[in-house]
Give the backbone structure.
Amino acid sequence: MKKIIKILAVTVMFFLASCEEVIHVDLETVEPRLVIDASIDCVKGSTGNEQKIRLSTTTGYYDTTFPIVSGAIITIENSSNVVFDFIETPGTGEYVCNNFQPVIGETYTLTILLNGEVYIASETLIASPVLLDEINQNNAGGFGGDEVEITSYYQDDGNQQNYYLYSHKSNRVAFPQYQVENDENVQGNEITMIYSNKDLVAGDVLEIKLYGISKRYYDYFNKILLASGNDDSPFPTTPAAVRGNIVNQTNFNNYAFGYFRLSEVDIKSYAIQ
């Protein structure tokens, strides 16, 4: 009997090991679309004159890199008709401006000329609150009580409707964790931001960023979180293409992905205790 059990155990182990083989499913290939990363971030206390826009295209599901897009003409114009040119660093798909003039409340228009088509978007530069100096750490946080939980704060302006984007980035994860917030139920109050990670240890540094954003971008980013399944919902939605505010004026059907956003941002770094 023991011999039979041993043979069965070896057979099951062999079967499980064979199941670890990665299977690649043939997926339908669609025409690549332009992806525009036009996030203009103006850090509090800086001039904000150096800005960058990146162009790439969508790619295959199994590909690990995104093809860059060169040869575009990119400008941003303010309401006084002052034009800021973004010049590509050759062969990188990164277009840089060194003389941008950020003004809170100013409206800017992005124009991209590429392959005979014109892409346009307009947006307003939104102010950000100040991240308060108080940051609290709880080493028994998270849902299971086994995570390092960091709580930080900012003060909402009670005189207007506000929308916020914030991110937390540590050396323990590859990408920042993002979340959007509005002050509908906390108008004029102090707002709390919470981040937890069980892998954080003393000496790790957590970078906290707080952005002021428009309602349009708030709605857009909420859709991004839902489509990606990163909204902390137990019932994730089916991934879908989410369009931003950048419109192809020449060929509406040849739309691009991405969003033209202008935000003031406040940044704090916190060393885990």
